[in-house]
């Protein structure tokens, strides 16, 4: 995951983050939160003109392999968060994209923007 903050017209700061193979929203949000905290600590969050988040090096779920260092507990926890993400997706399909969220729904000017469509192309309802 790349997290880029544009702080002036021609000045951008980019941090890279990594996470284990995942398909749950929480893994992505945890990585993004860690990168954001590093930006704040580095003093890069002044005069922001843009923010860009890019997921890269993606692969299909069937291409993944088991992690040698997985424990029974980590596998169980990951499965629980994947179930939560699946449930959230089902609720959003049935009741609309704003029916349920893991993160804050309030931001500067009360606008958070679109939801991130992990593992798929966003639908118009995602915005």
From TrEMBL:
According to UniProt, the name of this protein is DNA polymerase Y-family little finger domain-containing protein
């Amino acid at each position: 995951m790349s997290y880029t903050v544009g702080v002036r017209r021609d000045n951008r700061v980019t941090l890279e983050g990594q996470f284990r193979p995942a398909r749950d929203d929480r893994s992505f949000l945890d990585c993004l939160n860690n990168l954001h905290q590093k930006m704040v600590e580095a003093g890069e969050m002044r005069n922001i003109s843009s923010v860009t988040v890019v997921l890269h090096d993606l692969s299909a779920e069937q291409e993944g392999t088991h992690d040698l260092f997985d424990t029974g507990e980590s596998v169980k926890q990951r499965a629980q968060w994947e179930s939560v993400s699946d449930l959230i997706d089902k609720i959003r399909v049935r009741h609309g994209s704003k029916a349920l969220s893991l993160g804050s729904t309030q931001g500067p000017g009360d606008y958070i923007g679109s939801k991130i469509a992990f593992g798929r192309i966003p639908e118009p309802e995602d915005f």
